[in-house]
Structure formats: structure tokens, C-alpha cells
Amino acid sequence: MAHQPLAAAHAGEPIRNTTLDLAHMSVREVNRLLHAASQGDFLIKNPRGLHAVVAGLDGELNVRIDGHVGYYCAGMNKRASVTINGNAGTGVAENIMSGRVHVKGDVSQSAGATGCGGLLIIDGNASARCGISMRGLDIVVKGSVGHMSAFMAQAGNLVVLGDAGDALGDSIYEARLYLRGKVKSLGSDCVMKNMREEHKTSLRKLLDAAGLGGTVDVSEFRRYGSARSLYNFHISNLGSY
Amino acid sequence: MSSNDPWLHTPPRESAIFDKHTIAEIHRAAATGIYDIRGFGAKRKLPHFDDLLFLGASISRYPLEGYREKCGTDVTLGTRHAKKPITLKIPVTIAGMSFGSLSAPAKEALGRGASAVGTSTTTGDGGMTAEEREHSSLLVYQVLPSRYGMEPDQLRKADAIEVVVGQGAKPGGGGMLLGQKISDRVAAMRTLPKGIDQRSACRHPDWTGPDDLAIKIEELREITEWEKPVYVKVGAARPYYDTALAVKAGADVVVLDGMQGGTAATQEVFIEHLGIPTLAAIRPAVKALQELGMHRKVQLIVSGGIRSGADMAKALALGADAVSIGTAALIALGDNHPHWQEEYRKLRTTAGCYDDWHEGRDPAGITTQDPVLTRRLDPVLAGKRLANFLSVLTLECQTIARANGKSHVHNLEPEDLVALTVEASAMAGVPLAGTDWIPGHACAR
What we know:
The structure holds two protein chains of two kinds. By secondary structure, chain A is an alpha/beta fold. Chain A has helices spanning 6-10, 27-36, 197-209; strands at 18-21, 39-45, 60-66, 81-85, 100-103, 119-122, 135-141, 155-160, 176-179, 190-193, 222-226. In chain A, 12% of the residues lie in helices and 24% in strands. Chain A has an eleven-stranded mixed sheet with strand order 1-2-3-4-5-6-7-8-9-11-10, covered by helices on one side. The radius of gyration of chain A is 19 Å and the shape is elongated. In chain B, the strands form five sheets. An eight-stranded parallel sheet of chain B has the order 5-15-14-12-11-8-7-6. The longest helix of chain B is centred in the C-terminal third of the chain and has 25 residues, at 379-403. The model of chain B has no long low-confidence stretch (mean pLDDT 94). The A-B interface holds A 27-28, 31-32, 35, 51-52, 55-56, 58, 70-72, 75-76, 78, 90-91, 94-95, 97, 109-110, 113-114, 116, 129, 132-133, 135-136, 151-152, 154-155, 171, 173-174, 231-233, 235 and B 32-34, 146-147, 150-152, 155, 176, 178-179, 190-193, 195-197, 199, 201, 205-207, 212, 215-216, 218-219, 222-226.
């Protein structure tokens, strides 16, 4: 299972089509190499639940990870496309700025937390606080999401083909939530809204981007967002806090 | 004898329990139905550094010449893990304060003042502004629960990273930037609509305990190539355990903020009733570091009510590596200056008491986003004032250190101190003046 010597990255040589084996390299070595690369295709093997794998990428990179990853995989990603053939731990793609992160399995809590842009696709289910404080990221979850998802979500879109747990969209700001399944309960100031044509168009684009174009009927979704009644503190709203 | 004779009537007596302020607050609460929100820090009388004294030299202690002999003040932070630790020329830094709570000229002035004397300043909620990066030679980038403005490129531009767990003014509380301070620029930086109240979360969105924190710090180090010192800031609540856990989580530096630490906007009840005084927090934190063999390896920065070189020297003597100032720095810029007395009166307050920093009407142009008020603060002049103040703090601290025979301010030690009150003696772990008694300690000579 050969991998390109680290010295190549240090010498500034282009690195392409490289296999990186975390059974023989440390996370630090892998990340350092990828941070030094501006483009290329990479296969990462044996992630074995390690944390911060491919965190902080910033380049036209295609990265495939075969196996399960721990916390903060692809954290703060910029431009890179990362595919995880496995499950991901807490905070996958947290604070992602741009690019694409695709998890083929399930993810733990706080997926896409505070994400500013890009696309996060989760083929399985997401645990609690999916999309918490998201700030422009688009998330498509093909399964269900746990409680407090989209808590204080500021901007971006969260699409869920399955169900949502308690307190969906609690204290939500301007993010849009599209849900096909059942909602156990809505959080403070989160309400169901009309699904106008512009929203159906936007949802279609999101589903297309997630590879679901033509397979899902957008009319099955409901839209949720902020009632904007708690945007400015007022004494009459005390019961809502 | 007439009933009008004044000596027949006892003079009005103010209740110690229901004093004028308390009664006014009850009237205010009854009229409005809402708690009071304000800026500044705790205003009540608390055990503080004023309750300690330095002994100075005597027959058994040899002083250094006050104006001639060298007394070092430098401190290096981040020696534990960071590839690029930062060195401050003076052991006093500027605490995290956001653009949003402060005006752009105020942030610039903080950077100018700190840089002029070789120390660092710190970002706040909302991320890093170009002005503060440009004018801060050493800039600490805060990773806050809200993550407003958080960007990896800014993380990489910083000289150090501070993971904020809590704040002395409100341990366990988040923040609030009221709508009137949300300008177009502040709104854009925080990805929120203009004019709405911006709530800063009290919990981080992607970690929940010390084991998670260790992994979060690992991620931040990975993203920044393990170059930058990582601080963990805690409000003084359980300093022994919080310091130990921060060390366990991999912190290079622990920032400990006592309850006198300032805030831009918090409920008065929070400011005055949660957390413990700075004086009470230092020794437990130092004890935790010492027990772990990490004292001076993981540096301790103490903040919360630091006003003078004496406060600074006392914090260092109790085991801190540096101190941090926020409220005092704003005052040095011009906050609460008598020059604006007429305008303070219009706001129904007076110079020295103005604390409605959340309202955005600061006459001094510091805690506001109002373009007219903001223009009042000259960042060059205000920066010079801050540099002067930081220099005075340092000179005062050196003066005290030399008098105690120390060639570096870090050589100050608890044995140089005594306490004026039983409370301060117990909290600081130094003897009551004139005795060898420390409450809770076995007597020692």
C-alpha cells in the first residue's frame, strides 16, 4: 500500500492520485500533506475513527475516505470535495466554508455546525443538533435528524427526507428547513411556512446537487422557518424563552 | 419644647438591606417587568487585590535599586505545544472584546496601544476585522460558542487561538448584542439581519465536555499546523477543576476571568451574583497547575478587575504568568471620561458610572456603532492613551517587584504578600498582616 513520500509535499511538487494509509501515517502527516496540495485525487485508508481527519482543507482536492471517521472530519473545509465511505463522528464538516462533503453512512451530533457554505450530504441518519447555528451551508439528509436540529440556524438550507426529533429549528433565524417526514416537535419561534414555487425550485436544486434529482417529489416536503417573533427581546414573549 | 424642635426627630436612616439602589431597582422592576441589563463588571464591594499588601524588603530581604537595576517583564505564552509561542514584552494583555460591542476605532485603538508596548489584543464575537489585524502586532483569535464570523482563514492569520468556555461576568451565560448596535457591517460579519438582537450561545455547538474539548483543540491545531498557542478561557467558577480540565484537554494557556471582569451586555443579576472574585480564583488554579507539574509550563492569565500595577503585581505574586484587562483598557481609551459629563447627564448617569454599553449611545464613541458618535474616538490618540496606561501598569509592577528584591516580575511570590482581612487571607492563601495565620491552613512561621 504505497504512499507518496512526505518529502514530495515539502518540496512543493504536485501530488496527485495518492493513497494515504492512516495505518502507517499519522493524522498530522496526512493533513500536512493535503494542506500543502492545491489539487489532486486522494484516497485515505484505515481512518479507524480518528479525529480531525482532513480538517482544514483548502484546495481543488477530491478526497475519498474508506472507513469510519471520528470527530470533526473535514472541519472548516474550503473548496475540497470529500467523500466518506463510512460513518462520521461529531461535527463532521463543522464550519465548512465551501466545497462538498458526502457521508455515505450515518453521522453523530452537530453535523455541519456553523457551516458557512458548501454542501453536506448525509446518506444515512444524523444525530442531534444537525445544522446547529448553520450560516449558509446546505445540508441534505436522506435519513432522519435528531433533536434540536437547526438550533439557532442563521442561513442556508436543511433538507431532511426522513423525520425530525424534538425542537426542530429552535430559535431559528433565516435558515430554511425542508422536511418530508414527521416532526416530533418544533422549537421556539419555528413555524411551518407556505411552500411557494420559488421554494420548490430551490429544493429541486438542492436535491439535484445531492444526486436525488428526479427521484423525490418536492411536493411531499413541508417548509419550516422563523416566525421572527423573538428577533427583538420583548417582555410579552417571556413565555417563549 | 416645640414639636418642631429638630432634636425631637431622628434623621432619615437608610436601610442597609433596602438601600437606595435596591429600592430604586425594585421600583424599576415593578414598572417594567424586566430585569436590568447593563455593561461593565461587578460593582458591589468584593474581596479584591486592595485587601492584600506587599511586605517589601527588610533585613532578611534585599531590594533592587528602584530606577537602575533591571527588572524583567517579558512572558512567553504557548511553550507547551505550539511551534510558534508568542512573547509579550509586558505581562498584561488586552482581553477579548468584539467589534459590534465596540466601535471600529475602538478596536483599532486597542490594537495600536497594545502593539506600541509589545503586547497582544484579542478578537471577540463576530470574528476578526481588518483594522484590528492591521494594527495588532499580536492578535489572539477567539473561538466562541456563537462562532459569529468564525473563518479558517482568520484562524490562520491569528497569532494565538483562545477557546472561550466562559466569562467572569457571566459564567454559564451567553451574550446579547441588542438590535440598535447591529449596523450593516456588524450584521454582515455575523450573517444575521440588521437590527435584530443577536444572541451569543452559552454552549459550544460541537463539543460538550472536557473530552470533547481535547478533540476540538486537536482539530484547531491540525487546521493551523500546530503552530499557534491555544488558550482556554474560563469564567472563575470552579477554578481548580476547570484549570485541571483545560490542561488535560491540551491547553497551552489558561485564561481565568474573575467575576469583576467586564461585559458588553448582561443581566445585572448575573454580573453581581454568579462566579467568584478574581482574588479567590487564582490560588486554586495555580494549585491545579502545580499538582499537575504544569505551573509555568501551561501559562496562567488572570483577568477581572485589574486596574493598576499593584493589582498586576499581586496577581503575578499569587502565581499568574500574565494579566489581562478589558474595562480598564476601555477607560484608558476614554470611557467614562469627565469630558463627556454633559452628555452622560442627558443619559441620566454621570461620568464614572456610565454602564449602558449595550444601548449603543456611548458619548465617548467606544461602545457604539452610531457613525456620529464613533467618529468622536480618534484611534491614534486613544491608542496612545492606552499605551501610556499599559506602560504605567508595567512601571508600577516593576517598582513593587524591585522593592521585594525581584529581578523579574515573575519572581514575585505569595511569601511577599500579606492580607488585610480574614476573607482575603483565606482566599489568597497569604497570612493576615502581622500574623502567621491563614484561615484553613496550619500555622507556619
